[in-house]
Amino acid sequence: MTTENEATVRRTFPGVDDIADQNMRTVxxxxxxxxxxxxxxxxxxxxxxxxxxxxxxxxxxxxxVLEASLNMASLAEERMGVKVNxxxxxxxxxxxxxxxxxxxRRAGEGYEKTEIGKGFMHGFWGAHVSILEGAPLxxxxxxxxxxxxxxxxxQLLEGVIMHYADLAHADIIMxxxxxxxxxxxxx
Length: 187
What we know:
The protein is mainly α. The chain is built from nine helices and two strands, in the order αααααββαααα. It has helices spanning 3-12, 22-38, 58-80, 86-95, 100-103, 115-119, 122-132, 137-145, 157-176, and strands at residues 104-107, 110-113.
């Protein structure tokens, strides 16, 4: 990974430096660094969150989900007495939609799916890229299972927290756009 790509990831996702676990922090930096060099967008801020839920960039979505997940983790710890692995949670949230960098490309005034986007769920592709960059099994599991269309449900508390924070933001966006909520779709 280039120093420029690492600086871009740190500037775009300042929470990466809050990950105390050096390996997980490195995986986040390297996976996004790889995405920067391989995706069809000049800037991470140009990647759409969705082609249907418009008006929100992928970066804005990830930052929203990160803040919501950390708030939910604090509530769960304080009020329910559970222990949340915050490094794992932060790394998973920062990488959960990494696959979307490969899923879309510009098409005229909008976007279309790439061949990767047509052939793979974004959670799977994000886990794949993260594994290439040294992600531990638990981290790649959370990336691949975060979406409600995943055939496997999260097996870790951090995955449950991330799943609901992600779904909440997606449905708020859908609600604002007068589109059907993901919540209403069959799981």
